[in-house]
Amino acid sequence: MKFLIILSSFAAAPLFAASGGDLNANDFVGVSFWLVTAALLAATVFFFIERDNVGEKWKTSLTIAGLVTGIAFWHYLYMRGVWIDTGETPTVFRYIDWLLTVPLLMAEFYLILRAVTEVAASLFYKLFVSSLLMLVFGYAGEAGLMPALPAFLIGVAFWVYMIYTLWMGEGKEAVLTTSPSVQTAYNTMMWIIIVGWAIYPAGYVFGYLMGSVDASSLNLIYNLADFVNKILFGLVIWAAAVEDKRTA
Predict the structure, then answer these.
(1) Which one of 36, 41, 65, 191 is CB 3.0 to 4.6 Å from 234, fit for a cystine?
(2) 3-state secondary structure of 240
(3) Is the pLDDT higher at 247 or at 156?
(4) For the chain, which residues make up each domain, given as ranges?
């Protein structure tokens, strides 16, 4: 029953925006848009169903994971249509998606720590504000509101600051007092932020800092990054929640 309710919530999805005509099998970027769209929908359904199978303290984190993939799924319906119809980069749609989902992903660190230990609210605000500023400068560079290179460097600086806060600062201090399952989830999520998120600046470099803008490389890399980071992030939290319930 719950599965049907979740699916019905997508009944009003903007299918018209995603029609895109015929998908060319040789359009690898277009194919990647469709694959990521389907994967995000499947992940959203999974996270909301599994929410009832984890301990109470993990439910909010699973809800956020489902919201992240659900919001991304909605935007990918539009983005894939823009690409297939026009062959242009859906920059505005992509950054609207990131402005909603990236701060939620960063909030997951705070939520899983708060569920099991004392953690200062300042950690949440540092991660939330830094993630927003990272995206604001990224968009400014891609939209031509400021030179691409300075915008890129400022955005990367905020990304490094978040890594430092989680790896060496308040986040690291808090996680040391938690259970092994939480520490495993936290450390895995950290590596996603370090390695997985590195895909985004790689896309920016290939798209904007290599001379002329290469829309195909830019979107293919960004799609890969969204696929890995949004879905894997939630799966790590789900696995930690299941392990925590098993060992409780």
Answers:
(1) 65
(2) helix
(3) 156
(4) 26-247
Architecture of domain 26-247: Up-down Bundle (1.20)
User: What CA–CA distance (Å, rounded) separates 59 from 215?
Assistant: 39
Helices (H), the chain: 2-8, 28-50, 59-86, 91-114, 121-142, 148-167, 170-175, 180-191, 199-208, 215-247
Instruction: For residue range 160-198, list pLDDT tens digits in order.
Output: 998 888 888 777 777 777 777 777 878 888 888 888 788
Those residues with Cβ within 8 angstroms of residue 46's Cβ, 6 or more apart along the chain or in another chain: 238
User: CB neighbours (10 Å) of residue 154?
Assistant: 18
Q: What is the mean pLDDT of residues 33-41?
A: 94
CB 167 within 8 A of CB 190: yes
Quickly list DSSP for 160-227: HHHHHHHHTSHHHHHHTTS-HHHHHHHHHHHHIIIIITTHHHHHHHHHHSSSS--HHHHHHHHHHHHH
Q: What is the mean pLDDT of residues 121-135?
A: 89
Q: Is the dihedral of CA 177, 178, 183, 187 positive or negative?
A: negative
pTM score, whole prediction: 0.83
- Residue 167's nearest CA partner among 223, 128, 114, 127 is 127
173 φ/ψ angles, rounded to the nearest 5 degrees: -65, -40
Instruction: Write the CB contacts of 128 (distance below 8 Å, at least 6 apart in sequence).
Output: 103, 106, 107
66 phi/psi in degrees, rounded to 5 = -65, -35
